[in-house]
Design brief:
- By secondary structure, the chain is of the alpha+beta class.
- It has two domains: about 70 residues, no CATH class; about 90 residues, no CATH class.
- It contains six helices and six strands; from the N terminus they run ββαβαααβααββ.
- The mean pLDDT is about 90.
């Protein structure tokens, strides 16, 4: 569950909790300041959610204008897509408002360069030359090649290796 708090910029006004964009809109439209005027300026805070969503919130810069977009993305995207968004914005300097599918980021969740090399070999061997050649593969050389192309980063306590192509 993801929960937010909308804090009016006027410190004399009381904010409210919400979980959905339509709930924010409904409550924001009804909130009046002390003089009976609608409150028109809020800061949005993510107060409860998955660690990966919290990282996205920081990069995304959630505001009333984009809260619906943020909620839709975090609810519908896979953890892998979320990781590629974070890598694209945080590590590669991509525009946080751009479509993450256009970032040019390829990421793999893995414990090490060595594990990624083994995964690449296993995928290739299953589909192309057969498992009997596995012992003859130079995993060290493949790992060295991967280290030249990929960068390591951590997201929400998980390790990812990624490459960025502009």
């Amino acid at each position: 569950m993801t929960r937010f708090f909308a804090q009016p910029h006027d410190p004399d006004e009381t904010g409210f909790h919400f979980e959905a964009a339509d709930e924010f809109q409904l409550r924001a439209e009804k909130l009046m300041d002390q003089s009976g005027q609608p409150v028109d300026s809020y800061a949005i805070q993510l107060i409860e959610g998955e660690s990966i969503d919290c990282e996205i919130a920081i990069l995304f810069g959630i505001r009333p204008e984009n809260i619906s977009e943020f909620i839709n993305f975090t609810r519908n995207a896979s953890d892998h897509d979320k990781a590629e968004y974070i890598i694209g914005v945080r590590e590669c300097g991509c525009d946080p408002t751009a479509n993450p599918d256009n970032f040019g980021v390829t990421a793999f969740e893995t414990d090490s360069y060595r594990d990624l090399a083994r995964n690449f070999v296993e995928e290739a061997l299953i589909s192309e030359v057969g498992r009997y050649l596995h012992a003859q593969i130079d995993h060290d050389a493949i790992e060295r090649d991967i280290r030249e192309e990929y960068t390591e980063t951590e997201i929400a306590g998980r390790t990812f290796l990624y490459r960025y192509e502009e």
